[in-house]
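WARN no homologs supplied; continuing
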Amino acid sequence: MNWCILIPLLVGAICAILGYLLGKLLGGGNHDECNTRIAKLEADLNACKLSKVSLEGDLKTTKASLTSSVSAEASAKASLESTKASLASSLSAAAIAPVVLSVFDGAAAKAVFGKKIKENDLTVVEGIGPKIQGLFHDHDVKTWKALSECSIEKCQSVLDSGGERYKIHKPGTWPKQAGLASEGKWAELLKWQDELDGGK
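OK structure emitted
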């Protein structure tokens, strides 16, 4: 037998076995590493999918919020326009309405009555003396203007609050007299008072 032929075959077989073992050893490790990388990539992909779902939910919420904000802004704008229109209407009505300012002229009152008249002295009204004036002051009626805005019933209730001795007074003309005094119509007031009997 020729041993020279067997030696290369034996070396080839040994190399084949070593190659197989090395391939198994090195190939198995690479396979595990590849599996680990694939698992990591799959985990990243799942995380991206979850992130996408979350972002889509946030997008829907943001859209709904923006729609609501736009609707609220439109409503606020409409309300503002309505308020502006109302204010413009009020201002134009106020501009048209005459402004009546009552400025007390003591000299004019003195010229008509022949005596000094104090502003908002309720005793200028015929039928009202100092004590009745005190009753009106107690009921927060302290000016001619305030008295002119009182009803006759309110004047009577003020008198009734003073007791029996004040019930005999008749306040029927007092608000109108106070109105003339408030407007500075002294001559008209004096003329009317000359026709009255104790304010009645």
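The mean pLDDT is 82.
OK
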